[in-house]
Design brief:
The complex is a heterotrimer.
Chain A lengths: L1 E10 L2 E11 L4 E5 L6 H9 L6 E6 L2 E2 L10 E4 L11 H11 L4 H14 L15 H13 L5 E5 L7 H17 L4 E5 L2 H7 L2 E6 L2 E6 L1 H6 L4 H6 L4 E8 L2 E3 L4 E3 L6 E6 L4 E3 L5 E10 L4 E6 L6 E5 L9 E6 L3 E2 L1
Chain B lengths: L2 H51 L6 H8 L1 H34 L5 H8 L1 H4 L2 H12 L13 H26 L2 H9 L4 H29 L3 H7 L6 H10 L4 H29 L8 H4 L6 H29 L1 E2 L2 E2 L2 H4 L13 H32 L3 H11 L6 H11 L12 H24 L2 H9 L4 H30 L2 H4 L3 E2 L4 H9 L4 H28 L8
Antiparallel strand pairs in B: 1-2
Helix pairs in contact in B: 1-12, 1-16, 1-18, 2-12, 3-7, 3-9, 3-14, 4-24, 6-10, 6-14, 7-9, 7-10, 8-9, 9-12, 11-12, 12-17, 14-24, 16-17, 16-19, 16-21, 19-21, 20-21, 21-24, 23-24
Chain C lengths: L1 H12 L15 E7 L8 H9 L2 E7 L2 H10 L8 E6 L3 H7 L2 E2 L22 E13 L12 H4 L8 E4 L5 H14 L7 H10 L3 E3 L2 H8 L11 E5 L2 H7 L10 E3 L4 E11 L5 H12 L1 H11 L2 E2 L8 H6 L6 E2 L3 H19 L2
Parallel strand pairs in C: 1-2, 1-3, 6-7, 6-8, 10-12
Antiparallel strand pairs in C: 3-10, 4-10, 5-8, 5-9, 5-10, 5-11
Helix pairs in contact in C: 6-7, 7-13
The chains are: A alpha+beta, B mainly alpha, C alpha/beta.
């Protein structure tokens, strides 16, 4: 089990990480979600030992890691853009960590074969790295990180540079692989869908601090603040005052359990429907086809424009529509 | 105008552009080729033929070379000292290559420029300073003069910059995450370096090593001053056979031997050049270097830089110190007396030598730039055999003995125009030596200009020529400035080739220093040291100017 | 074809092919071929130029050896009209190669006979200087200075002497010749035995005179630690004259035995464009103005016995009593063998 306690990293006077605490239980996958520049990569580099923390402690099963050099931590890190050794074949790349452990040749060969099989690259040991596609490189990098059976696997935007279709397929495979082999992992990404798919636990990082943590469902259902909500993809957000169990927004009044104060409310996309009979009226000012649905932007008087998902028969630009508000989440 | 006419006009315009392109291409091949044939190959062939036909039994001289134990010894010494020098240079300069590539620290680009100064200083100047460090009264306290160590260390001194620049250049572009990946996979610091970084640096190491090997294989001044002829390279032996004995047949045979050896080295070098183009995950240099972060890193940086400063700086500092001492006291007497003409053994005021040197350096720079850049376009844009052989041919003067070239000029340029004593020979000889450096600086930049940039310009409506002018030229122009600075510095410090020309009374700085050192008297010695210091400063200025114009880290020097 | 190629190449670099000088002998310039060490006072050459209304162009080679070799390589189409600086060690090579025209200058009348080494007068002696061992007077008292070559190989001189390599240095060769003249090639104790003794007495060999004098010698401007060096008899006055603060006495002295005399010759180059002017220049060089200018510029003695020596020169220069002599043809015939044998002794 990995526990990181109040980790702070300063580089050239800038606090890249500021008091970050996390823990990952054995066999769990922690997804670290955050925009670029939030300190995700630095977090992984610090855990792996490539970066010295300014303050805070790192422990594995209670053992202080600060005196353990990088190569003896027994962790695996899959780099963004993979960092495959260009002068070595696929097999040699995957075997590298095993050779460092001075395993017998036979065992190394068997393990390389096995791990390549896991990632669907069976029998390609002798191929050169330089002419692999992005997806293939990703698989080799994963195999290389997995081969020495690290106690902790860290993945830094592993699917970042792949196209969308490939990414959606690989993320599912990856989750399966991690679960099947009970691998403890920290998975860093800026993509919330990826994070939701792969994670047992989720941690949202903002400017080097933890904005929120919890299970993916918890985080999605109750974002900690407006920034997190927006980062998670919520668009219809509004501040409103609650008076005696009723929130007054420019669009409508809701009943809420929140106390009497100013609150931020989020309307999930599926909490809004087009209904000609609804009281709230607006004009369609934007309309985009998204494959499975349309995203329609509706301007309402005296309030921010609302984004509505419409499955079919989307209203045309300029049309007057009525909107029905379903569930509302108070932050 | 009808459609048809427009089509015709377009066709003729295309033809015209095509014709212009063809003319440009043939000029690019033609000018350097003619230059090389006239200024290098023809004089070389003339003197070799003169030498070899001087013997009643042609080719017998080759037999002598192989039969005589002393000459065999010379060949053997040449080879092993070159190998030893190259290895020693690699070992001593690699830490600096690493530190300059991987760390940011105050004054980095200034220091990197300073490292290059020894590379272009004339050997006779540094030889005496080296004696002051390694000699019996030397700063080191041990007498290494007349030992092989003095020679090896002087070779390291001269070639340090080649490793720092060439290996450091690639190192700076090497993704540091590769080594980090190895560390995480369980490799210690040394294992990660040995298994990952070293193999990836191999093309640069091989290229730099072959350059250092070439320079040390043909070493002349260092061996002469520090080796006292106890140690002789083939180059020194050619000079001795020619000058002392006028034994042209043996000198010619040795020259051919050296040319063959040098061509083999260069072939190996260009093969690595080709491979260097091999795909690697290269990162921009700015992203791979950072400030030292902990005590250990500060020690590595500080220790390496201190070693570099002491090793390279001491001989240079001694020169400067000597120029400022007179009659045992600090004094500017040596400098103030440089303007005296009457009692100076230079026959002209020493200051005029500075003017001469600057003039010759400008001319040499102009010639080297024109020929070098044209040749670079051929080498960079034409791949394969043509490019390789052209490259090799241009490098060959570096491996040819200065005496051979000097005497070659004498034999070859007698008719139809008698150029044997023309002052133009000095910049011509200098440019022969500078051209390979121009090419080495410009070609990598030309090769990195991705065709996609040029295509983008085409799509935006530029003609091929226009696209070249708008995209390639500005980038090449900057590397051209770098090359110009280098050519200028090389010409300033050149002594060997100049010394063996019969020349009108226009001493260059190194020649003036040499002449002053040939006279007894404290004033003459002081003047020689003052001129050496001035030479050093001029060289430093031109090298520092280079750094301002460098395009990224491309280019090998 | 050659014309076109050369014009093409140089047309770009120099003005043009048309300006090249292909005209028959132009009487308005005289070209002097000489070496690095040639020096005269300002105004001396101008005297000749004014007398004949011509320009004297000076071409320089690296040293006397290079100059002679270059003259031999350009035989028949010489680089200039008159050559100056051939010394007696290279004289035979120059004479045998036939690069000089005979010319008997009237000035020779004032030159002592022992300097006239070429009976056919192809080479005219202009100056002479002696190569002698110098000592540092701050280390060695005048009374204790070595008095013979043999003493240099003795225990008191151990680790003190610096010599130049005879293959690369003209004083080095002169010193070797002095030892060969002294000890000979045959007998109980040959010159090779002597050099073996020098070697065992920890002698230092340098490539050139400057390395020896400035690098290893302790006297005068020298930066080294050895008090004995092979240099010139005229080095002590040079130390006096080229010093910033006036010196009362020379900081160095010379050992008067084991000196070798170098004589420098001038000659008219065979095939010269202006042979008459060249001959007149030789007369000029033997003339009193030029001869009296020689000592303080080149630090050698004028060949013309009528030339007055400058005071500083007379005061601080000694002319050694005994001189070693070997005739130029013997030197030329044996040079390579001697140097190689010397190599074998010194660099086993």
């Amino acid at each position: 089990m990995l526990s990181v306690d109040r980790l702070t990293v300063e580089l050239h006077g800038n606090k890249i990480l500021d008091g970050v605490s996390i823990s990952v239980a054995d066999g769990d996958v922690l997804a670290v979600l955050g925009p670029s520049g939030s300190g995700k990569t630095t977090l992984l580099r610090t855990i792996s030992g490539l970066q010295q923390p300014t303050e805070g402690t790192l422990r594995w099963d209670g053992e202080d890691l600060s005196v353990v050099p990088v190569e003896e931590r027994g962790f695996g890190l899959m780099f963004q853009d993979y960092a495959l050794f260009p002068h070595q074949s696929i097999g040699a790349n995957v075997a590298f960590g095993l050779r460092m452990q001075h395993r017998p040749l036979e065992e190394i060969r068997a393990r390389v074969e096995e791990v390549l099989d896991w990632v669907g690259m069976t029998g390609l040991e002798d191929r050169r790295i330089t002419n692999l596609s992005g997806g293939e490189q990703q698989r080799v990098a994963l195999a290389r990180a997995l081969a020495p059976s690290p106690r902790l696997l860290m993945l830094d935007e592993p699917l970042g540079s792949l196209d969308r279709a490939l990414r959606e397929r690989l993320i599912v495979e990856l989750r399966q692989l991690l679960v099947d082999h009970a691998i403890t992992a920290v998975y860093v990404t800026h993509d919330q869908e990826e994070a939701f798919t792969v994670a047992d636990d989720l941690l949202v990082l903002r400017d080097g601090t933890v904005a929120q943590s919890g299970t993916p469902e918890m985080v999605y259902r109750r974002p900690a603040d407006e920034w997190t909500a927006r980062f998670l993809g919520f668009r219809n957000i509004v501040r409103a005052r609650v008076i005696a169990g009723e929130a007054v927004t420019p669009w409508a009044r809701f009943n809420t359990t929140a106390d009497n104060a100013e609150h931020t409310f989020v309307l999930p996309p599926d909490g809004l429907t087009v209904d000609p009979d609804a009281d709230l009226k607006g004009t369609v000012v934007g309309r985009a086809f998204r494959g499975g649905h349309y995203l329609v932007q509706v301007a309402v008087p005296d309030g921010p424009t609302l984004d509505v998902e419409v499955a079919r028969n989307a209203p045309t630009l300029g049309a007057e529509v009525g909107l029905r508000i379903g569930s509302v989440v108070a932050l | 105008m009808g459609r048809r006419d427009a089509a015709v006009t377009n066709a003729t315009r295309a033809q015209r552009v095509d014709g212009a392109g063809r003319l440009l291409r043939s000029l690019a091949v033609g000018i350097p080729l003619v230059f090389l044939i006239v200024v290098f190959l023809y004089p070389l062939a003339s003197i070799l033929i003169t030498g070899l036909s001087g013997d009643a039994r042609p080719l017998a001289a080759f037999g002598d070379v192989f039969a005589k134990p002393s000459l065999r010894g010379v060949a053997w010494f040449t080879l092993w000292q070159a190998i030893a020098s190259t290895l020693l240079t690699l070992v001593l300069a690699m830490p600096a290559a690493y530190v300059f590539a991987r760390y940011e620290f105050p004054g980095r680009s200034l220091l990197r420029a300073a490292v290059t100064i020894p590379f272009v200083l004339p050997t006779l100047v540094v030889g005496s300073a080296f004696l002051a460090v390694l000699g019996p009264n030397g700063a080191l306290g041990i007498d290494l003069s007349s030992t092989i160590w003095a020679i090896l260390l002087a070779h390291v001194f001269y070639n340090y910059a080649v490793i720092v620049r060439t290996v450091g250049g690639l190192w700076a572009n090497l993704d540091p995450r590769l080594e980090e990946a190895a560390r995480i996979l369980g490799a210690g610091r040394w294992t990660a370096f040995r298994t990952i970084t070293l193999p990836l640096l191999r093309p640069a190491i091989a290229a730099a090593s072959s350059i250092v090997f070439l320079f040390t294989f043909t070493s002349f001044g260092v061996i002469l001053v520090l080796g006292n002829l106890e140690f002789r390279t083939i180059e020194v032996e050619i000079w001795r056979q020619t000058m002392s004995f006028l034994n042209l047949p043996v000198a010619a045979a040795l020259s051919v031997l050296q040319l063959v050896a040098v061509s083999l080295i260069l072939l190996a070098y260009s093969r690595y050049q080709e491979r260097r183009a091999l795909e690697q995950s290269l990162a921009p240099a700015s992203s791979t270097s950072r400030k030292p972060q902990n005590a250990r890193e500060w020690w590595v940086v500080g220790g390496t830089l201190s070693f570099t400063a002491i090793f390279l700086g001491t001989p240079l500092a001694i020169l400067a110190e000597r120029s400022l001492r007179f009659g045992g006291e600090w004094s500017l007497a040596a400098y103030t007396s440089l303007g005296d003409g009457a009692d100076s053994p230079l026959f002209v005021p020493a200051t005029r030598a500075i003017g001469n040197s600057l003039g010759f350096a400008l001319a040499a720079m102009a010639i080297a730039l024109v020929v070098g850049i044209l040749a670079s376009t051929v080498i960079a844009y034409k791949r394969g055999a043509v490019s390789t052989w052209f490259d090799l041919l241009l490098m060959l003067p570096l491996g040819t003995s200065a005496v051979t070239i000097g005497f070659g000029f004498l034999v070859a340029f007698d008719s139809p125009i008698d150029l044997r004593t023309s002052p133009i020979l000095i910049p011509l000889a200098h440019s022969l030596i500078a051209i390979p450096f121009v090419v080495r600086t410009v070609v990598p930049v030309m090769r990195t200009i991705r065709s996609r940039l040029r295509e983008a310009a085409r799509v935006l409506g530029a003609s091929p020529l226009r696209a070249w002018r708008e995209v390639d030229l500005p980038l090449i122009a900057r590397s051209g400035l770098v090359a110009a600075g280098f050519a200028f510095a090389i010409s300033l410090g050149e002594f060997g080739a100049t010394a063996f020309l019969v020349r009108p009374d226009r001493p260059t700085l190194p020649v003036a220093i040499f002449r002053l050192l040939g006279r007894p008297g404290e004033l003459n010695f002081g003047r020689a040291m003052a001129l050496s210091t001035i030479l050093m400063v001029l060289t430093a200025v031109s090298i520092m100017a280079i750094e301002r114009f460098r395009v990224g880290d491309t280019g090998e020097f | 074809m050659r014309v076109i190629a050369i014009c093409l190449a140089f047309g770009l670099l120099t003005a043009s092919c048309g300006t090249a000088d292909e005209a028959p002998p132009s009487p308005d310039t005289l070209t002097l071929v000489t070496h690095q060490s040639f020096a005269v006072s300002e105004g001396t050459i101008e005297l000749f130029e004014a007398q004949h209304d011509i320009t004297v162009e000076i071409l320089r080679s690296d040293d006397a050896g290079a100059m002679v070799n270059q003259a031999i390589l350009t035989k028949g189409n010489p680089l200039g009209d008159v050559i100056f600086g051939i010394d007696n060690t290279f004289l035979s090579r120059a004479l045998d190669a036939g690069i000089l025209e005979a010319y008997e200058s009237p000035g020779l009348a004032a030159v002592p006979d022992d300097l006239k080494l070429d009976p056919e007068h192809r080479a005219t002696p202009i100056d002479f200087g002696d190569v002698c061992v110098n000592y540092d007077r701050s280390v060695i008292n005048d009374g204790e200075a070595p008095k013979s070559l043999l003493e240099l190989a003795g225990e008191p001189a151990r680790g003190m002497l610096v010599v130049e390599n005879p293959a690369t240095s003209s004083p080095g060769l002169a010193f070797l010749l002095a030892t060969i003249a002294e000890f000979g090639e045959d007998g109980e104790y040959t010159w090779k035995d002597y050099w073996a003794d020098l070697r065992d007495n920890d002698v230092v060999v340098t490539a050139g005179w400057d390395d020896a004098y400035y690098g290893r010698f302790s006297g005068g401007a020298g930066q080294g630690d050895r008090p004995l060096v092979v240099s010139y008899a005229s080095s002590p006055p040079a130390e006096v004259i080229f010093s910033e603060t006036p010196l009362d006495e020379a900081p160095t002295g010379i050992m008067e035995a084991g000196c070798f005399r170098q004589i420098e010759f001038a000659g008219v180059l065979a095939g010269a464009d202006a042979p008459e002017l060249a001959a007149e220049f030789i007369d000029f060089m033997l003339g009193v103005e030029f001869q009296e200018d020689i000592p303080l510029n080149m630090f050698v003695f004028p060949a013309n016995a009528e030339a007055r020596l400058p005071e500083a020169f007379v005061e601080y220069t000694k002319i050694p009593d005994t001189l070693a002599t070997i005739s130029p043809d013997v030197i030329d015939a044996n040079r390579q063998r001697w140097i190689e044998e010397w190599d074998a002794v010194m660099l086993p």
